[in-house]
Design a protein that fits this description.
By secondary structure, the chain is of the alpha+beta class. Among the domains are: 44 residues, no CATH class; 93 residues, no CATH class. It has a six-stranded antiparallel β-sheet, with no helix packed on it. Strands 3-4-5-6 form a four-stranded antiparallel β-sheet, with no helix packed on it.
């Protein structure tokens, strides 16, 4: 069947090809379709979708819907569209968040919280989506870095800080953030001049070797889970 289909296409005459092209361009520019693909433009979507945005993110709700959050007006507003049914995109809300500037959605911190990073160097914040129509931003005080971010489970965020040009390129400074409560994230003391970093994923412990000695980032909840696993294995071991 596949071979026959290819053969038919290959035997189209030049005039037939021209006719197909003319037909495609005759479709409305904002709603182009074929047998398998439909391209929908802004004119066929809710008004909020016609406003320029800086970033966007899909979010699944507890009631089974899929919402699209679009950051607009350089962080001042979030447009919320219900895109559960792509054939019937609906406006859910237009929420003011009054962020200090444009931001990017970095990573989920849980069911209803997302880490965002501001593009103008103003650090990071936690976006709370518990109320899908009225999201709020919670700034992470003391965190002002544009380096790579790494999550240590669901409890800790480690962000590489920018170092001065005089610094040893083999050393990295880190900011550590407690995100065990995403609604009240808190920045912990910096760990500077890190030469090497390794993590024991069994216990959730991260070891940082610095010029001042060894630092540990412990996660008690992960340690408790590790002990529980060990006890379960011991009970089932003859």
């Amino acid at each position: 069947m596949k071979t026959e289909r290819i053969t038919r296409i290959a035997l189209l005459t030049p005039m037939a090809v021209i006719a197909l092209i003319v037909t495609a361009y005759a479709q409305p520019r904002n709603h182009v379709s074929s047998d398998k693909i439909i391209v929908v433009g802004p004119a066929d979507l809710p008004e909020l979708a016609r406003v320029t945005g800086q970033a966007m993110m899909l979010h699944g709700t507890m009631d089974g819907r899929t919402l699209l959050y679009i950051e607009q007006n350089h962080g001042a507003r979030l447009a919320v569209l219900d895109v559960t049914d792509p054939a019937r995109v609906k406006t859910e809300a237009s929420a003011r968040v009054n962020a200090p500037g444009s931001f990017d959605f970095v990573s989920s911190l849980g069911t209803d919280t997302v880490l965002v990073r501001f593009r103008n160097g103003d650090g990071e914040a936690v976006l709370n989506l518990h109320k899908v129509r009225a999201p709020t931003l919670n700034m992470i005080q003391g965190l002002n870095s544009q380096g790579a971010a790494e999550f240590l489970g669901d409890d800790v965020l480690v962000v590489a800080k920018r170092t001065s040009v005089e610094s040893d390129p083999s050393e990295t400074d880190y900011q550590v953030v407690d995100i065990s409560n995403p609604l009240q994230p808190s920045s912990l003391p910096d760990i500077n001049e890190v030469l090497e970093k390794v993590t024991n994923y069994q216990t959730g412990t991260t070891f940082l070797l610095t010029s001042d000695g060894l630092y540990l980032i412990r996660r008690p909840a992960a340690e408790a889970e590790s002990r529980t696993r060990e006890q379960q294995v011991a009970r089932h071991t003859p």
